[in-house]
Predict the 3D structure of the following.
Amino acid sequence: MAGVILDRRNWIFLAALVPAGLVALVATLFLRQPDPQPKAPPPAPIAQQAAPAAPASSAKAAAETRQRHQTKGMGKPVLPPPDFAVKTALQLDRPLGPGDYVWDDSGVPAGRVAIVVDIKNELIYVYRGGNEIARSTLIYGDDDKPTPIGVFPILQKNADHYSKTYGGAPMPHMLRLTPDGVALHGSRLIHPDYATHGCIGLPRKFAAILFREARLGDYVKITQGWNPAE
């Protein structure tokens, strides 16, 4: 009997061990962490290719486009410093009357122009390389809308401009000087009894010639008194 009881105890002990072993085996199989996978190598960098250089004609066209649109939010233009030094003056045989003008650039090399507006004497002077090539009478802003004094670059050119502020009034051959609309332009009447809303009104034929000769960035000096012999 003692041997039978011992065998039964051993059997019971063995029976208790078997489930524990199975549990450990199952835990080992199902709870085993997967082997780490090797990381894929990073992709090789793509070689940067330099953009082909633009042809000379395209570069020139781009430069001309930047000049045409200087006033359209494309950045401030790089302008040469203003130069109003006078080397020679036109010799007129008589004073200019209302609406009169003279344009004589014979013998003067081509180039940029500098423009002086004398609102005190109601005259405009055009210089190229310090040589006076043109002079004209003008009208300017009245007391309620005075013409500003100072030096201004030409910001915009429009040969067929109409005022948005003053009911579509024609402003042919317009050369804009300020963002708020002060400009040089052709006017129908040039007479001391007439005034503008701040612009400089010029004889229409003179304004057309000036429009052709002036460039964006050319400077206009508006002053109270000017000695053309200086």
Remarks:
- The first strand starts at residue 101 and ends at 103.
- The domain at 77-223 is CATH 2.40.440.10 (L,D-transpeptidase catalytic domain-like).
